[in-house]
Amino acid sequence: LIYAVSAGITVGIQLCGFAVAYAKQTETFYDILGGVNYLALAVWSAAAKGTDFGEDPRKIIMTALFCASRSWLLLFLAWRAHERKGDSRFDNFKSKFFLFMGVWLIQGMWVFFISLPMIFVNSSSHVTPISGALDWIAIIGFGVSVLMEIAADVQKAVWVRNGRKGGFCTVGVWYFSRHPNYFGEIFQWWCAWMLAYGSAKDGASDWLWWVCIISPLFTMHILLNQSGTGLVNAEGKSLKRYYDKYEAEYTKYRKSTSILIPMIGYQYVPLFLKQTIFLDWKRYEYNPSLDTTTTETDDKKNE
User: Which of 48-52, 118-122, 259-263, 268-272 has the lowest mean pLDDT?
Assistant: First the structure.
């Protein structure tokens, strides 16, 4: 029942958002309603009858970390929407009823999929104490990855506000990763899935726990493969602005800085490992022969 109601809440929020957005022909609160949707699912799954939320520390910790993560996302997206005053990604189809509605429903699907480990834990009647290495690795990893995403967002925003010194961001965690915000977003949902394991009645045989792996896998798909967002949007042809103005500096930074996983010594990693397990795929490289003109406005949208 919790899953069905969670899906219904998600569809309801997204369709209401779409109705208002289509009527006003705006997308400015699209991302904000995504954040609201996350928090609504957290409140519902924790407060639903029969969850015994207050008696299970796993539920409390999972929901607290989830809400911390999504509250930051909501605040950051609200600030970004105010700063940008629009999103060019929607320009070609926000006037098209079914296409625009589809975008809202896709957001709802993403929200629901990412929330699965949290819903799984809060709906489980299997109570186990927080113990063992897996639980603590998951909790610490979840918390650290949320903090990393927050640090990356704040440091990048301050860098932009201060005039984009150096042409590309290398401050703070951006010195150790070219996209630390995406790493934090991906890694936290792997940690959430691991933390949810303790609520599985049959351990690794619990099929519903395995269904929850959709959360990190779908996040990876969106941020690694989906055009218009994530690495596909930030890398490739979007690197033109760096190679045109700071070719030597950016080439050095790219060779010595991991695309996702924060680390030192990346310049010593063999190329075949960079392009496989480190996810620094060739399609993310800048190819001038495939370049199309990128405007300054597009540059800012890619940040």
Answer: 48-52
Q: Tell me which residue of 196, 201, 200, 151 sits closest to 173, measured CA to CA.
A: 151
Decide: helix, strand or coil at residue 289.
helix
Q: HSE (CB half, 13 Å, CA atoms) of 189?
A: 24
- CA–CA separation, 294 and 191 (whole Å): 37
Structure tokens of 228? 């218009």
Rounded Cα gap, residues 131 and 244, in angstroms? 53
Rounded mean pLDDT of the chain? 91
Amino acid residing at 106 = I
Say which residue the tokens 């539920």 belong to.
59
Measured between alpha carbons, how far apart are the two ends of the chain, in Å?
40
How far apart (Å, rounded) are the C-alpha atoms in residues 248 and 253? 9
At 41, which amino acid appears? Answer: L
Percent of the residues in the chain that have a pLDDT greater than 90, as a whole number: 76
